[in-house]
Amino acid sequence: MRAMVIVIDAFGIGALPDAALYGDEGANTLGSISRTVQPLEWPNLIKMGLGNAAALLDGPLAGCAPVTAPLASFGAMQEKSKGKDTTTGHWEIGGIVLDRAFHVFPPAYPSFPADLVRRFEQESGYRILGNKSASGTVIIQELGEQQMAGGQVIAYTSADSVFQIAAHESVMPLEELYRVCKIARKLCDDYDVARVIARPFVGEPGNFTRSAGRHDYSIDLPGPSVLDHLVQNGVDTVGVGKIGDIFNQQGIARSYPDKGNDACLERVGRLLTDNTTGDRFIFVNLVETDMLYGHRRDIRGYHDAVRRIDEQLPDIIKLMNSDDLLVLTADHGCDPGFPGSDHTREYVPLLVYRPGVKGRSLGVRDSFGDVARSLSAFFGISPFGGGRNFIDS
Known about the structure:
The protein is of the alpha/beta class.
């Protein structure tokens, strides 16, 4: 038996009841795209029941109508944890619910506490440039040439719980950047920061671009996730994309840190055809919707990224065996039609496909943790987490 959970990063479908507490009242990632781009070029997701899932919240969504016979079971999931970031969302999918949000640094200079800056500069040997909330693509244009002068790194944050470090690869090789990030990771533990992120870049002044050497350093998990539970019960667990980074490789038998959605989906295809026997769980993150388009408020780009995912879904489904499971969901929202550049506190879609099983409504779920509970049921092992099983519902 094989199960796949594919997370379309930041693919929200409507503001949560507590969205106003996060400044996100009225946010709707799917809604903004459907109002702006017509028609939506996502035929496979719509056939699976994406419109049916959205209709559970505020009624049918213009441009993404429900279908009468969805190919998948459909629902909407509410985040139970506090926060709206990648780590919190994925951990809750994995059965870990957080009772408090990770620390977020203030946006204005200086974002980082003086003691954190002092300790970082002392232990790393590099002075900090930036020290504010910024777009990564913007701040490297602003400070990249100065950073290349040597002895400095660009350190910046965002509305997420992150400490990001950027450096040009010609003056700081990746190994050195990673060493510096490990120092920052240890220091940021004292501030309950979710992720330290290495952000290398290349190019010339006026034309800097971020390179493929990004690496995320997550805070340690507070306990086991469903990945640990599956491994302990003989299930082969595979992380694709940044899943390994998010879970600190904990509970993951094999990790493939492929860059880009196409590469991640190609990996899924290879994993489904590699003739491995036994039970397997494949956990996939498709980051481009969030990283390249959500934060940059690029509605058309976001739509087209989902279209490319949609185009590849039939190939994945064709490779599924009769007893396989596919779950499509998200970890938070990042409404490209909403003010600012932050994630948005939203419901996420839940599409559950099993060959030969008629699609039906799974309703509005109380927690992303329902996925972890349902994976336990699917593999026939003891329940994990406090969610509700939707496999047999």
